[in-house]
Amino acid sequence: MDQSVMEHESTIKEISECMPNEEILYDLAELFRVFGDSTRIKIMYTLFESELCVNDIAEVLDMTQSAVSHQLRVLKANKLVKFRRDGKSIIYSLDDDHVRSILALGMEHVEE
Amino acid sequence: MDQSVMEHESTIKEISECMPNEEILYDLAELFRVFGDSTRIKIMYTLFESELCVNDIAEVLDMTQSAVSHQLRVLKANKLVKFRRDGKSIIYSLDDDHVRSILALGMEHVEE
DNA sequence: ACAACATATGAATAGTTGTTCATGTGTTTA
DNA sequence: TAAACACATGAACAACTATTCATATGTTGT
Fold first, then answer.
1. Lowest mean pLDDT among A4-13, A59-68, B39-48, B58-67
2. What's the predicted TM-score (pTM) here?
């Protein structure tokens, strides 16, 4: 095995060592997959400035209550939104500023 | 229509006005959808520190050349990677620092 | 306790997507 | 120029996902 092949092999090895482990990579992909649907993005944008109940989100986006609820479930499971009960309604809001940051960064890339 | 209903209506309207238009939202979702697959994320991570040709990516990730090429096509179409020819090989690299920023932000959220 | 309201959820379906296999295109070398 | 190499691409299939419809759960006011 000559020098250049050995260097090649060690480069390959180095890259593999820098790679985050499978589980983290899968979680990361799942996080982005949640952002990868325009209706979920719309829902997050409705919550950008103020919290809202499910019916209001459905009204703003002209969607069925069921569809919104299903998507909120996904957002909830990935800790992108949080919620609290207020009487009969359940009020949703963005979980933290990470969500806003990620949306903003994505927007920067898209608007170039 | 009483006062509270009017306020409700105007809130709904305000939110709709802040919402980015359909096309932008769709592009944004598409961008994140590209990040939403673990093999594409792996490919981007192999390119995090240094540029690589298709075969090397395939070798590092233990994937077929075809599968890698198909995914590079998606990354290319969304301007997440760029490429240049070098002899028989085509060398891929991350397109800009946006890619690194987005991956890093996502990682922050996941590692909490 | 009961009716009305707000939300969640399960099942089914239609549409989307990642991989594989086979083959095509483009480049180098003998 | 023919063979070998590196990569791209089209078709097909299996796996996944978002929405709809029907219904269940939980809360309020009477």
1. A4-13
2. 0.92
Give me the CATH number covering residue B26: 1.10.10.10
In one letter, which amino acid is A67? A
Q: Do A19 and B29 touch (CB under 8 A)?
A: no
Q: Please give the average per-residue pLDDT across B94-109, as a whole number.
A: 95
Q: How many angstroms away from the CA of A5 is the closest CA of chain B?
A: 12
Residue A74 is part of which domain span?
Answer: 3-111
What is the number of other CB atoms lying within 10 angstroms of the CB of residue B82? 15
Judge contact between B83 and B93, C-beta under 8 A.
yes
Shortest CB distance from A38 goes to which of B26, B38, B48? B26
Tokens matching residue A21 = 């482990």
Token couple for A70: 């299903």
Give the model confidence (pLDDT) of A30-86 as tens digits.
999 999 999 999 999 999 999 999 999 999 999 999 999 999 999 999 999 999 999
Strand C nucleotides, any atom under 7 Å from protein beta carbons: they are 5-11, 17-23, 26-29
Q: Do B60 and A101 touch (CB under 8 A)?
A: no
The torsion angles phi and psi of B91, rounded to 5 degrees, stand at -100, 125
Question: What's the total number of domains in chain A?
Answer: 1
Looking at per-residue confidence, does B2 or A90 come out higher?
Answer: A90
